[in-house]
What does this fold into?
Amino acid sequence: MRSALALAAGVAALLLPGSAAAVEQGPYRTVQRGYDLGRETLRVAGSDWRLHALPTRLAGEITAPVGAPGRRPVVVFLHGAHQSCEIPGGHFPTQDWPCRPGFQDVPSYRGYRYAAQVLASHGYVVISLDGNPVAPANSTAFTFPDGEPFTPRTWMDLRSKIVDAQLRRLVRAGAGETGEAVGFGVPLAGRVDPVRVGLVGHSRGGEGVVWASTMPGPRPYRVAAVLALAPVDFFRRLVPDVPFAVVLPYCDADVSDLQGAWFFDDARGRTRTQPLWQAVVFGANHNFFNRVWGDETGWGLGGEPSDPCAPSEIGRTRLSREEQEEVGAEIAVRFLRGALEGDPELVHPLGLGDAAPWQLAGAAVAISVQPPTADRLDVVRPEGRTSLRRNLLGGAQGGSRLDSFTVCTLEPGTILKPNWENAGCGRRPPFQAFAGSELRIAWSRAGARLTTRIPAAHADVRNFGSLSVRVAVDASDERRSRRGRPLPFTLVLRDAWGAEADVPVPRSHPAVRYPSRGLAVLGEVRVPLTSFDGIDLGRVAAFELRFDRAPSGRLLLSDLSFVR
It folds into this structure.
């Protein structure tokens, strides 16, 4: 079995500076077929938290390689909530299922062909599931056959059960079973590897595949990687300990708060053997990850005088559908290949890498990576007021010449507990993709800095490769964080002998860019320790952020770590 570090390295190929070109086709021809496996009665959670019978159609589309030898890795796509039925010609969309007479199914499951075909060309068996049977469950106005009403929990439980039911059928087909119940339309006997399964979900399907990956066993397959595209996170379920990636389209007008950031941030501080990865794709919207869906409407999320995410901005600050499909395929193919097969061409020789790209497939991105627990020394991750004066290692911490220095905890709760909590975030809390607790720092004087001390027991960082910190510009402070202006700063390490080394963060770094719609998202700044020249990395005594590159500003900060 490959080590966690090797697996993390495969996933981290996304961090290669040269990975901006569109992903290449693989060596295999592909075949694509629609399939209908008939109905299966699934047991799904109702309002009383008990399971209720619900007959459900299992259908979708399979894309498979031609001539690929042996058992092949499997990828499952699950779309989100969208109109399920419409009159031919695209009129009068509904959320019914089954469709009423005169209406036809909307084939949302075909919306990921741009990625499925490339994956299949690299030897993957890909199924994209028809999620339309879930459509009525998106409302509480419907009931189970026994009269029990649907609830929000039904939304996700049914999605996870559809994933599980179809994966079980696929494994049966791979084991040689034949017949209508496993009639995927292509030969599968001996061609399905049940221990290399990757799940990809979009929108509510993103949370759906997280639920599917955490279902209790036993199961005849193993989920080995999960990718969530523009997901909701209604229930705050922790992601499994497998390579996990979340993609946040910055121009999302559906999941406009980018709540999928919770998946990454809720796992902070948890013991993990596998990495987490988050990419903010600037200019990407919600719907263009699915080529069946039209563009979103209802812009004006950030209250900007001119919206950089409006459809009229496609080709300037917005991505076209074709451009967004390119970056979606790039992320999906590289992440899944790195996680499921560890292709040597995708493995960065420095593990998780020191320089994340600022572009993927030509699209601007901001990337954060959390390595496995064993590959990090976490120094700062705010968890309460005591986090102001002490870091996680017990070292003293404090600010100098700062206007304000607080722990900000902005907690919107969940769909089941919608109460908001705001502590330390001021009268105008930051408009932010939710990130748990973080330091909120403001300055307007020369010499402003934050210092956190490293106790002697943790002073030797020579076994680590980089220093990592996650930051975002807080645009809610309009006086200090001026519109459109980035907020670069300087990273400083000081050793026990008093020697210092500093590395300035460039103004162009995506983590310090001004949020064009006012929506702040934490991005990672990662610097190789070799860049801190002239100090003793065996006796590091302190770390500083010096706010010497902008006369004033307000930043959000978290997750200061030494990483391998």
